[in-house]
Amino acid sequence: MAKTTAPLPGISKYRALPVAMLAFFLCLAGCLPHQALAAPPEFPNRDLVVGTKEAPPFAMKAPDGTWTGLSIDLWQQVAEKLGVKYRLVEEPSVQSLLDATKRGDYDLSVAAITITADRERNVDFTQPFYNTGLGIAVSVQSVSVWYEITQTMTSLGFLQAVGALIGISLAVGALIWLFEHRHNEDFGGGAARGLGASIWWSAEAMTQASTGHRGPKTLGGRTLAILWMVMSIITIAVFTASVTSALTTRQIRGLVNGSEDLPRVRVGAVSGSATTGFLDEERIRHRDFANVQDGFRALTSGSIDAFVYDKPLLAWTAEQQFPTSVQVLDTVFETQNYGMAMPAGSRYRKPIDVAILEAIHDEAWKETLFRYLGEKK
């Protein structure tokens, strides 16, 4: 008869212990919050109020109310790293956005906000996350030939050349009078009459319009006349070639080719932006517009000759909305940095700075730059 062995006392109790411990630890792991998602102690126990303003490609609002863009995507990465929740509130302009941030209406402002000294006096900025500069947009339509002629003939160089030519002609006329007024009745009859006749003859000789009925008779007068005739032929030829070359160059290159051309053309800018501050400092007169789109419409209608603003915003708007009528020049000037704004003395600044620096050194940031701007950094 088979024997059965009874278990030792208490064995069943110890055999079930590992199962109970495993269940306990599984429950603990599932119930406790994940420490990586916990917000730092600097942040309040509520959703952050984040202000923004539509500024493609940094902040763009879809018809369904969702936001995307370079700045928005970066903030989403930062918020995820910090484990904070937020809600976005839209403002109509950068200035109103900064004013509300200064008042403390927003915990943070995220858009295309350039860091300037004047703004730093009112709000705090995070570490810069993108650096660029001002750009210039122009119309692709060729400028009127008559407008080019007018611009050329009223330029300082042209007026100086004309003044020099007239001055030389007057000097030659005066010398002819000195040589001839005592020996030639055509240039005599008093100083006023003689000088007038001499200067008129000098102008005729310069333009090759002299009839030959009158002219110098003395050796000195004729020698000067020969020199003046030869020199005037060369001078007029060089002057004509220079004007023609200037007009041709303007037609090929366009009216505006860089920031050095801005003082002499009609310039537009976005009102309340850092661009207007730069233009005012450089004493460049400008016409202000509510947004880039209005400025580009003024360009295409011929109301202005150049529109100055942050180059990435110019390039995006030209490519998306005005691809055949507006072009952005390659030039970049007045370097600018973009950052996020906070009320002065914000306790959120340090953790947000760290999160931004981590995000912009991540491979995902390079992909974001390429997606919105076509840049590889």
Number of strands: 13
Biggest sheet character: 6 strands, mixed
Assign the structural class, choosing from mainly alpha, mainly beta, alpha/beta, alpha+beta, or little secondary structure.
Answer: alpha/beta
Number of helices: 14
Order of helices and strands: HHEEEHEHEHEEHHHHEHEHEHEEEHH
Poorly predicted regions: 1-17, 19-37
Shape: rod-shaped
Give the mean pLDDT: 82
Strand fraction equals 5-15%
The Rg value, from CA coordinates, equals 38 Å
Q: Roughly how many Å apart are the termini?
A: 85 Å
Helix content: 40-55%
How would you describe what is shown here?
With 377 residues, the protein is an alpha/beta fold. 49% of the residues lie in helices and 14% in strands. The chain has 14 helices and 13 strands. The strands form 4 sheets. Strands 7, 8, 9, 10, 11 and 12 form a 6-stranded mixed sheet that branches. Strand 2 and strand 3 (67-68) form a beta hairpin. Helix 3 packs across helix 13 (349-360) and helix 7 crosses helix 8 (191-206). The N and C termini lie far apart (85 Å).
